[in-house]
Amino acid sequence: MPNLGPTELIIIGLILVLLFGAKKLPDAARGLGRSLRIFKAETSKLRDDDDADAPTATVVQAQPQPAAPAPQPLTTAAPAPSAEEQARVLEEQAARLRAQAGAPKPQ
């Protein structure tokens, strides 16, 4: 990226003033600063989480294997419910939870 000289920076500043107006520029800069602060905090939390999740050395002892269980007779599983059936079940559960909470039903 080429270096920006003072004349280029002045031109960019004038364009920003023309686009946003002199009154809105401080608010925009403040919002940008808040966004950057939040972004930095979140990325530092991610780094801290990665450090905390680092694996630690553990000693695992082998357990004796139990005898093999008797074979179970083969049974056919019920077919998986369709997406419409799953949606209907979820709607019924939501309605029950709303009724338990005493919340009005959404329109």
UniProtKB/TrEMBL annotation:
Keywords: Cell membrane, Membrane, Protein transport, Translocation, Transmembrane, Transmembrane helix, Transport. Belongs to the TatA/E family. The lineage of its organism: Bacteria, Bacillati, Actinomycetota, Actinomycetes, Streptosporangiales. This is Sec-independent protein translocase protein TatA. GO terms for biological process: protein transport by the Tat complex. GO terms for molecular function: protein transmembrane transporter activity. Its main location: membrane. PANTHER family: SEC-INDEPENDENT PROTEIN TRANSLOCASE PROTEIN TATA (PTHR42982:SF8). Residues 45-87 are annotated as: Disordered. GO terms for cellular component: TAT protein transport complex. Part of the twin-arginine translocation (Tat) system that transports large folded proteins containing a characteristic twin-arginine motif in their signal peptide across membranes. TatA could form the protein-conducting channel of the Tat system. Residues 54-65 have a biased composition (Low complexity). It is a single-pass membrane protein. The Tat system comprises two distinct complexes: a TatABC complex, containing multiple copies of TatA, TatB and TatC subunits, and a separate TatA complex, containing only TatA subunits. Substrates initially bind to the TatABC complex, which probably triggers association of the separate TatA complex to form the active translocon. It is found in: Cell membrane.
